[in-house]
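Entry for the shared binder. Reason: the reviewer on the internal report wants the predicted structure included alongside the sequence.
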Amino acid sequence: MPAEALTFGLVVNPIAGLGGAVGLKGTDGPGTVAEALDRGAVPRAGERVRRAFARLADRAPGTLVRAAPGKLAAGWLEGLDLDVRSLAPIEVSGTARDTRVAAQALTGCDLVVFGGGDGTARDVTASLGPGRAVLGIPCGVKMHSGAFAISPEAAGALLSDLVTSPDRIGWDDGAEIMDIDEAALRSGRIAPQLFGHARVPVSRKRMQASKGGPSTLAADALAGAARELVEGMSQGTLYVIGPGTSTGAVLTAMGATPSMLGIDAVRDGRVVARDATAEELEALAGGAPVRIVLGVTGRQGFLLGRGNQQITPSLIARAGPEGLIVMASEDKLATLAQPRLWVDTGDPELDQALSGYLRVKTGRGRETMMRVGAS
């Protein structure tokens, strides 16, 4: 893949991630987009794609990008110092068909970049066929596939390296394309499936691993950590409880049933919200102190930005690094693809402010110090 002949293709799913902040856990399925918009969801996929390509434009100006038309890609690159060549107009349907048609038109590209989540990854790779190189800019609610960069900025840096320093980048022909049945997810059941493999660039600090399945958790140790946390809760403080088995132990320790896949909230010893939206959490917080209890995604190591977009940057900023309480089993930390944790809040400045080190509760009286990186 010689740098002088490099051409990138780009397609954006403009509704990717729309259901995250409003608690829908995705935007696949009939009626979901309309419901998300009715709940006040704001599209953010295009903005995240622009952040990635702004980084590319800064580091490798004039790079050739063949882009799907309008909001499907080219419209998000306006004003950037790139050689953007828009594809012919596409009759937009607002469905996955748009992504598939655009991807099929991106012939002759060395690498097809897409903005979306796991559903978009499935549509793009299926449309391109085997052997085509792809790179995902994370814009969805759930991103279990191994085709995604860690963040928009990481994607932009990787693309610029492909242009200016291609020897730094390796290639993996077996990245897993995974997806979860969103209808099952909304009913509290995780049903992940492998849909194929893709060729992706390899950059250890910029690409996320495919998400690992459930490991054998140290359930007793996490239960002990949860009881310790509940015993030490401060009066008047809103505790926002993120999704997952580890954090669910906190509700269990209180004698309550956790949402598991949603965001719950606790204050003064009682549950004040279940499966809450971003708007509901902001309203509950009011002017009171906030602490956020988070788990760690298997193998990937994400704390924020994967399946918990209901926890907004403003709420995270109020809590601050000292207000993040992380719970994970020791075996989950030991099997991370990289020995660090990641944050992708949607606000790069906040991500930097959260970087550093924090203690992860692994049991009663047991903690492990982990490095946190801005993705």
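Summary line for the report: Residues 45-59 form the longest helix (15 residues).
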